[in-house]
Amino acid sequence: MGAGGPDEEDNRWPPWLKPLLKESFFVQCKLHADSHKSECNMYCLDCMNGALCSLCLAYHKDHRAIQIRRSSYHDVIRVSEIQKVLDISGVQTYIINSARVVFLNERPQPRPGKGVTNTCEVCERSLLDSFRFCSLGCKIVGTSKNFQKRKKQLTAMTSDSEDSYSSSSHGRSKSNNSKVQSFTPSTPPPTSVNYRNAKRRKGIPHRAPMGGLIIEY
């Protein structure tokens, strides 16, 4: 593949990370269903063959295995375990049951809380100011070239839209001013003299017969 292709993107991360994030944990182990320790909450980073129960680990001696834990129905990993094998910088950590953990995948959030000034770059979940992502899954997505490209395109579109709106508003303002000016009445032309209604010259007086009134024409 060429530069920036899928292979390059995948090589940025350990081969076990994406399969880990897609795995379903806390289900009953099919091999040890009769055991009370059959809950699958382990994962072998070397074999990458799905979720394991504690009894399955007997077949993975000397392998790198991590334990998945749960918080409010979401999967987490202790920072002390995951930071040995993965760079988790930029991912917000949480204190749960006296242990610092990170979440595997994003958690839906209807809306940011009041006064929130920083959110996850991918899912917009509320974060502390010093972090960029709420989970390992969001970091994978948010640091991919495709996501960064779309983000730049969206930013450019938003900027163009704002510029267009500003220009349109300015144009409408000029148009409105023109319209206002066009509605301003012009100076009325001087009134022409209506000679028919002008004051008539006095005519020659004529005396009415029989001593009547004098009428001017």
UniProtKB/TrEMBL annotation:
Residues 164-185 have a biased composition (Low complexity). InterPro entries: PLATZ. It comes from the Eukaryota. Pfam families: PLATZ (PF04640). Residues 153-211 are annotated as: Disordered. Transmembrane segments: none annotated. PANTHER family: PLATZ TRANSCRIPTION FACTOR FAMILY PROTEIN (PTHR31065:SF48). This is PLATZ transcription factor family protein. It comes from Rhamnella rubrinervis.
